[in-house]
Design a protein that fits this description.
Layout lengths: L1 E6 L2 E4 L4 E9 L1 E12 L6 E7 L3 E4 L7 E6 L4 E6 L8 E11 L4 E5 L3 E6 L1
């Protein structure tokens, strides 16, 4: 079993910043990729940013330049630095990880989500 626990969400004024964290634990052999998704009320879950390995990143939309995804492999922790936040960034943010367990079984796991609310 692999578990992901997110933290760092909260309420912030427009233009402010937040840093989300996601720590993976369990019988992990390797994590190939990690990602942040978000789901706003009444909308589908969407990819925000993804990182493969230590530094291969891609961003899904206009968040590039405002958001930065990074990863600490030694800590099995994923980060999302969010700057210049806008009310439309309000959503539940979910962490996702893909890899293999110590039994060499593939896994793709979601965290429970952390709420980000940006007020104007």
């Amino acid at each position: 079993q692999v578990q992901l626990v997110e933290s760092g969400g909260g309420l912030v004024l427009a233009g402010g910043s937040l840093r989300l964290s996601c720590t993976a634990s369990g019988n992990i052999f390797t994590i190939n990729a990690m990602a942040w998704y978000r789901q706003a009320p009444g909308k589908q879950r969407e990819l925000v940013a993804r990182i493969v390995g230590s530094d291969s990143t891609n961003y899904a939309g206009s968040e590039k330049g405002r958001f930065t995804i990074s990863r600490d492999n030694a800590k099995n922790t994923l980060y999302l630095q969010m700057n210049s936040l806008k009310p439309e960034d309000t959503a539940v943010y979910y962490c996702n990880a893909e890899g293999r367990t110590t039994d060499w079984a593939p896994f793709r796991t979601w965290g429970q989500g952390t709420q980000v609310t940006v007020s104007s």
